[in-house]
Each structure stands twice: as structure tokens, then as C-alpha cells.
Amino acid sequence: MTDPSADHTNHSVARISARRATPADGASVGEVHAASWAAAYAPLFPAEVAREGIESRLTRWHARIAEGNGLIMLAFVNDRPLAISWSEPSETRAGFAEIHSFYTHPDGWGSGVSAALMTSTLQELRADGFERVHLWTLRDTPQSRRFYTKVGFTETGATQSRDFGDGNPLPQVEYELVGERGA
Hints:
By secondary structure, the chain is α+β, with helices and mostly antiparallel strands. Helices cover 32% and strands 30% of the residues.
């Protein structure tokens, strides 16, 4: 017989949720983006470029959300915002949505919030009429590349270089999700 007064609830189980960002979420989206970018990408740049990149990521989201520029999603672990995504119709691939930004705060790495956000992002894109989605990620970021593969994306073989403002273009690789697993 069990003790009915004993609390057998597992309090370590995180509650993960995701939703479209609202104008009130600008600071939260910026904080997640800046912290993630600082951890994953800032080391690839000179200190001044990294500092400017972090500062711009803290403030760019207020206007983007208020103006309704694309689908901006925010994901939470126990009500703490820890992951963001930003998607729009692709300018380069007809019929595709493009995920421009997909970032998880380092405190959320390994929590499952990234996979939950991707699922929610793809559901919203599907509801918006997109069955196919693509994205670009830096070639030399194995953590992000493993994640995109794990959630069903495949490399297209396409590459490009992107200058992030320091005059030193970095190589990117393209991933896509098409068909049943697509948006």
C-alpha cells in the first residue's frame, strides 16, 4: 500500500512550450539570441565585431516583431524563454520557407527546448501553407549541424559564404526538409 500523503511527483521534469512571439517579447527574444550567438559564434570573430554582434542581437527584435516580419517563435522551459526561431518565405527557393534564425540559450542546451521549438516552428509554417523549408548554417558549427540532422533536415550540397561584418566571409552549408517530414 502506498502512502497517499506522499508526493510522488517528479519535480525535475521540465515544462517545455513554444508560441509565436508578441511585441512584449522583444527583450526576451533578444536576450536568447545574444546569449546563444555569444556562446556559439562570438569566438569566431575579432572582439570588437563580436561585441557589436551581441549588442545588435539584443535590440533588433523589438521592431521586427512589432512590424510582423515573418514568423518569430519563442520557446520556454518552465516559463523561462530559452529558444527562438525566425522564418519567412524564401527569397531564393520558390515554395520554401527559410529559417533565418534558430537559437537556443546555452542554459537550454540539452533540455529538449530546441527540438520542441523546431516542431512548433514547422507546425506554424505548415499552417501558413509551407510544405518545404530550408536554412543555412555555418559549416564549422558541428553542434548546430548535428541538431538539424537529428530533427530531420538533410544537407543539400549547396554552400555559400557570408560576411558577418568583419570583412572575413565564413562558409555556410544549406539544409532542407521536404516531404512528409517537411513543414
